[in-house]
Design brief:
two-stranded antiparallel sheet; Rossmann fold; alpha/beta; 19 helices; nine-stranded mixed sheet; 13% strand; 503 residues; globular
Length: 503
Amino acid sequence: MAAMKTPPTSHTLAWAVPALAAALFSSVAAPPVQAAEARAGLKPCRVQGVTHDALCGVLRRPLDPAQPQGTQIDVHYAVLPALARNPLPDPVFFFAGGPGQSAQSLGGHISRLLARLGNRRDVVLIDQRGTGKTAPLYCDMGSPFAPVAEGLDNQRQAARLQACRAQLQQLPHGDLRHYTTTLAMQDVDAVRQALGAAQVNLMGGSYGTRAVLEYMRQFPKTVRRAVIDGVAPPDMVLPLAFSTDNQAALAQVFQTCEADAACRARYPRLRDDWQTVLAAMPRELSLNNPFTGRAEKGTLTRDGLLSLVRLPLYSPVLTSALPMAIGEAAAGRFDALAGLATAFLGGGGQAMRMAEGMHFSVICAEDLPRLAQSTDQLGADFGDSFAQQYQRVCAGWPRGEVPAAFYTVPPAQAATLVLSGGADPVTPPRHGERVTKLLGAQARHVVVKEAGHGVMGLGCKRDVLFRFVNAETDAEALKVDARCAENIPRPPVHLPPLAEAAK
């Protein structure tokens, strides 16, 4: 998700793959550059974080396909050339999360994640329309030194996004109805054709899984293999599913503490402490700004508190400190909660920045109209607060047309590896399990019980990705042993020294 140098907001950071933000430490040798002139329309370029030269292309596409002679946008993409002199003809297309991440901005992470695959296959990074350099829809993130309370104020954030929407609509490409996943995947296939690839291998994390599934639906015969990590199904009603899944992830925190003798002894009433803190909202408080270190006073609302707790749930390492942070909050000290949320947001720099205009163009068109159809049971604590925030922003947001077929998942025609983290607070295994059944016999679901949001970045999974894609046949791919990380332990609960805890 985006590493924003502002206090966390409840609106952004819906889906993504934080595992990519962890260092994926593989070195990549420089490839031969001879292919630059051999590929029509591509020019040598540099991609941030990638150690070797890339080839960049631009493809002109209509903003509205129904008006092919109307407003045009430039779809920017980068090819990380295979290192081998005789590369295989089926490249790997990587789909970023968000919605709103730029694939090219993640180039360094992805090149290391797919280093072994990149020996014989090109890796292609397409900035989806609305992100990166492709008709960008970015909002002003404000000052990194703004008070924490401002970033947690939903009314203030809604006003900021309304102002952003008005500014974006003044852009030449500012008709926000034309940034749906369906249209974006048509751009992707146009890039495939421009590259002359008969088939491609697809990989996506978080929202990128929705993109992969939509590409597979529209262009099934061009897909050779697919990997989806942290599945966000097309019919998932984002704001309401979040409530259900956030609540389940928080329940795991309490269960883990209760099962750990040391944590249970330190925080014997953790669930009750949390309910006490929650019931006290809104409240005036003082805390040190995690970015500036300056003492601040402000009002923390219930929604703001839920945001502070929700963000660390994405990462098991940060989650391990939540019992301590909740215990501190019960004692009236909120610095630890604010610090954990900031630690999640602050680790990826510009690579993790979200194009909020694209984010809301997708969610307001694809998810919000289906709120009444959701069967998710709201979490007891999280309730419908997240849905209310999106309703507030989406009320005036232009909505694109979404075909009914978008919400279906046809049987896969190519081997598909489905990955889920058991501790994922946004795309947990229940979504991956359902999609795997819909994909049918060509899909296999692998759950890493103690992983958070994003599995493919775990060390041994990189080899699994290589063997799955590199297998000669679908049958061989589906037999690849992908269990290497199934038994990784949950990070131990973080318990500060008693002398510190007593201060």
